[in-house]
Amino acid sequence: MQNNTQQNLFDEVNQLRREKNAVILAHNYQVPEIQDIADFVGDSLELSRQAAKTDAEVIVFCGVHFMAETASIISPGKTVLIPDLEAGCSLADSITADQLRQWKAQHPDAVVVSYINTTAEVKAETDYCCTSSNAVGIVNSIPEDKEILFLPDKFLGAYVEMVTGRDLNIWQGACHVHENIGELNLAEKQKEHPDAEMLIHPECGCSTSCMMKSAMYFDCKDGHVYSTSGMLNRAKESDAEKFVVATETGIIYRMEKENPGKQFFAANEDSVCDYMKMITLENLRDALKYDQYEVKVPEELAQKALLPIERMLQVS
Ligand code: 13P
Ligand code: SF4
User: Fold this and answer.
1) Which ligand lies nearest the alpha carbon of 202?
2) CATH class of the 177-266 domain in this structure
3) Band of the pLDDT at 209, cuts 50, 70, 90?
4) Span 4-87+276-298 CATH architecture
5) Which residues touch 184 (CB under 8 Å, ≥6 apart)?
6) What pTM, to 2 d.p., does this model score?
7) Is 40 a residue whose pLDDT tops 60?
């Protein structure tokens, strides 16, 4: 039940959104009220596609900075706003463009595949972007004799290596939320809910241990590892009634909303991304009211960073 303050904020946001011809895009980890008011809620790939095709003049990105930057790169003619400029990403921070240039110098013939959780500067040094939902397809699209530098997430890299059978050079970055979802969390939850299906994001620490210990838990090659929207789709399709969810806990709101009667348990209740939670109804309202905070990637950089994103969108 919404209280009066929240209803007033909803009304203000709705009015401003109409006046400004704005679209509100929200990631699956956003707080419930942001998910409820957004025009579209999705994973990184879906949000990039929405940013590419929207007719709105203004895109308000309820997510983290690299997502707003990606929207600005894809839609340079639009105004892209993020309600809090401090909404960053520890994974995107785990590699700089200088570090990538040095790595490339050591592997001059390699193809660079970067997760979308990277800065525009890193994307500008990249051949292909990927997200958690298409990383396997992107790597499979690269000729087998090509050396690949995969960055920055070591757990996603290990997962892609296992599924594709390719030998990748993997940057040793990680997301501070997902790397703390470990094998013990899964073991404990599996004991508590033996009939639950496991849904695991490939950024998780446990995605690697589950691959190594597949005999003990389950076989990751047979599903279980999904992007956030992949998890939502699986939760709908599956006959299971209980699920253990190994990712940021914000996704559980949408899972419960879309699947009445099914139960969802966080693999680790502490898996909260403070960056994602910086977006609130108040700062969303202010973003629309005061046109703040604009995320604009300089033209020359945006042109370079667009190529790997376009390649990704063509392949997947
Ligand atoms: P996806 O929603 O694309 O699975 O990515 C999760 C993530 O890292 C968001 O920060
Ligand atoms: Fe970045 Fe991790 Fe937060 Fe996603 S959950 S935005 S990868 S810090």
Assistant:
1) 1
2) alpha beta
3) low
4) 3-Layer(aba) Sandwich (3.40)
5) none
6) 0.94
7) yes
